[in-house]
Amino acid sequence: MKKINDWEDELTFEDTKSDNRDLIQFIRRLYSNWYWFALCALLGLSLAYLYLRYTNPTYTIKAKLLVSDDKKGGMVEPSALLDLSSLMGAKNSVDNEVEVLKTADLFREAVLAEKTYITYFNAGQVHNAPVMLAPIDLQLLSNPDSILDGISLKALLIDSKTVELSNADTSFRISYDRAFRLPSVGTVTLHKKEYPAAEGMTFGFSIVPVRKAVGSLAESLNIEVTNKNVSTIDLTLNHGIAQRGEQVLRTLIQKYIERNLHDKNAVADSTLSFINARLKFVTQELAGVENKISGYKKNARLADISEQSKILLHTSSEYNKSLAEAETQLAILDDISKYLKDSSNPRIVPASIIPQDISFNTLIPRFNELVLQRERLLLGNTVNNPIIQNIDKQLQGLRADMIANIQNTRQQLALSRNKQQQRSDLLTNQLSEVPTIERGFIDLTRMQQIKQEQYIFLQQKWEETAISRTANVANAKVIDSPKADEFPIAPKKKLIYVLGLLAGLITPLGIIYLKDLLNVRIRSIEDITSRSNLPVLGAIAHNQSHEQVVITKTSRSPIAEQFRALRTNLEFVLQGGKTILFTSSMSGEGKSYIALNLAVTLALLNKRVVLMELDLRKPTLTSKLSIDAGKGFSHYVVRPDMEIDEIITPSGKHELVDLIQAGIIPPNPAELLILQRTADLINSLKARYDYILIDAPPVGLVTDAQLLNRYADVCLYIIRQDFTFKEQLFIPNDLEKKGKIKPIQFVVNDIQAKGGYQQNYGYGYGYGYGDYGQEEKQPWWKFWNKK
């Protein structure tokens, strides 16, 4: 690929830089590299196509739930059962239900129900496409929790009885419906399903640990309240298969509703169990009292009670009724207190047994909620879990508060009972005159009333609880069933293509910018003018002909005109001088090339020119001119008897251009340059020639150029584009500042024109020749129009 560089349209000696010059220059640079942008854009679009081709789509499945919220409204239970159903739990909150839906236990139930830890796919050469249905059905015979590590196997259906399973590590054949063991998974079996054209096709399945499947479901599911003004919950699931995602989300909602009903029914079942136990005991006591009354009447032969006994009995009956109610409440308080003091295994406390104790009834729902939460956590944790220990501490505190409330209530009831007992005892004293038999009958009747009141109370509560349990409904219902979007949310084709195109366009732009940012070599005129105040005498374009001499009498090429422009500018600088010194910062910047072509350019004006090859350490002019090495400067300086004519050699490029070779490489070149014989040689050459061009070594490496400056009228400092380092410009600046070499004029060499925008544009004064005077080239696209 041809190297493309940028340069200024003109070299000027005044600061005429416009505000938008950098922008225009940057746009030209981008335009000159248009093919890179086109290629990278095409590559970006191709990569986007490949990404879309081999990326599995992701669909969004949405569902909506309506939750009963006591603050916001929502689902309303039947008014006839509203009071009874409120006995079964605490108030509902949509925020609480969102947290319940996010629990890992609920996700685990859905994963186990749907077996999402097992997935099937169509095996491809590049990627595997997930499918909902496959010709094989994998059944895990062992516990799903036995899956320790994931595994993925391809299944090649050999025939109706055999399937070959393989992956990168193993390959084996098995028969359908025969159990086998997979490492780190457990015992499994494969069943064949009806599937069209299944034989010879390659399917596969993947098995992951349950905990990983639960985590994947939690990451892909988003649960949030629609807004703060309603009691609806939005569920959004991202899944690679639309139908499979709908099924998973539907199962998750079903498990949530089942768990919600289970919690409500657990409270009702506990209350019914408690009431049944009490009814059995009270029934037995009531039957015993009735048997005693029957036997007492039979033994005492009682047929009727006197009028006085009726009055006394009626009065006593009122007191006995109050005592019966007090005894009933005390018995219930004792049973509940005994029920709560058993802390070895926390159980659900029956609700609304003590209606007069409002404080106690408010503690029961919180206590029951913690007991249910503890039972759920114990399914997957031990009692040493910090969360369970925290719940135990809360239960212990609530149990203490409830027992304290029961003790306070019992003290109040005992005080009321004692007062009633005193009044009853007073009435009993009034009956002292009643026959002893009748008094015994009254005692038995009173006992019968007490037990009968207990029985009626418990039977009433049993009916209420049974009706409430029947009326239990879930706190939430589905108002929008799970539905998948018609189009996948990822990958987005238009966005991927746009990103691919932008990436393709930005990549070469970034490379160009980064290349310019990290460039340490001189590339533009600003790189010179921003670091040096020395003038730029001329600029020479890149030589594509690979000839050492690019200028002849008839040449009209742009590079020939640039040497002519350099010659013109040089005449203004010399002001009658003859000696020109060529140097640079380092080797390879084109000193010899510039000196040789400038010599020919000066000779075209019928001027006699001599080239002095004084780079005594590494001479190159002789080899560039294809001349045999002979006697030269080093021979002449050390041999006083040698004449000047003996070291002057025709250049072979022009009859007016001669060459003085370097001669043999001396051990002390610097000392030879400052000898008086060297000065005499220069003076003699000035008498013979119109111009003396001295090719000196790089000034950045040795001091030869500084020594030769005493003989020169001007120093041409060669800078090569994309070769000379920017930091090397401090060398000519320092030489000029300290007066070691002056005057110094920059000549920029090897400028490569910017293709694609303005090929062959000029440099400096009179350098903008372009293709002027040359034969117009035929565009390549018109080649086929030639006949």
Automatic annotation (TrEMBL):
Any GO MF annotation of the entry: ATP binding
Boundaries of every Polysaccharide chain length determinant N-terminal domain copy: 22-109
Membrane topology per record: Multi-pass membrane protein
AAA domain residues: 578-708
Enzyme class (EC, first level): transferase
Domain of life: Bacteria
Keywords: ATP-binding, Cell inner membrane, Cell membrane, Kinase, Membrane, Nucleotide-binding, Transferase, Transmembrane, Transmembrane helix, Tyrosine-protein kinase
Subcellular location: Cell inner membrane
Subcellular location, principal: membrane
TM stretches of this protein: 34-52, 495-514
Pfam families: AAA_31, GNVR, Wzz
One Gene Ontology cellular component annotation held by this UniProt entry: plasma membrane
Keyword flag Transferase: yes
Catalysis: reaction(s): L-tyrosyl-[protein] + ATP = O-phospho-L-tyrosyl-[protein] + ADP + H(+)
Enzyme Commission number: 2.7.10.2
Cross-referenced NCBIfam families: eps_fam
The family this protein is said to belong to: Belongs to the CpsD/CapB family.
Protein's name in the database: non-specific protein-tyrosine kinase
Source organism of the structure: Sphingobacterium puteale
Top-level taxonomy: Bacteria, Pseudomonadati, Bacteroidota, Sphingobacteriia, Sphingobacteriales
